[in-house]
Write a structure and sequence with these properties.
Elements: E1 4-9, H1 18-34, E2 47-48, E3 52-55, H2 59-62, E4 67-70, H3 73-76, E5 83-84, E6 90-95, H4 102-114, E7 118-122, H5 126-138
Antiparallel strand pairs: 1-6, 1-7, 2-3, 3-4, 5-6
Helix pairs in contact: 1-4, 4-5
Length: 141
Amino acid sequence: MGYTHYWYHLPQHTPAHDKQWNSMLRLANDLFNNHPLAGADGTGGAEATPERIVFNGVGDDNSHETFWFRRDPEQALAEWRKERTEDDRYFSFCKTARKPYDICVVAMLARAERLGLIRFESDGSPAELKDGRKLEQQLGQ
């Protein structure tokens, strides 16, 4: 299936509380200001709005699948490749192919996990996730 990160939104956090979402937005904006990130198709600007965070790597060589993270996971059900699991959690994933934007995807998912918004799993080893987790701790609390 390729190098993939998976996450499961926890039902009790639908939608994310304001404080939690503001922390996610601060991190996203810090990442956008300090890392080469683009919009969903690898061009244009990355997006952090009151409803969602969306980014990809820049250009064909550095982009892969778009990272989409919704404030309200119920809205994600209407989007491509989003579904509910048997235990009523909202499932999503992002394949990064270990491209440079992977560190930012890991940082975002590590933040969401730390805030209690999701359960985060990955094909990456702890060593492969280390830099993204460290970046999350350093930026935009």
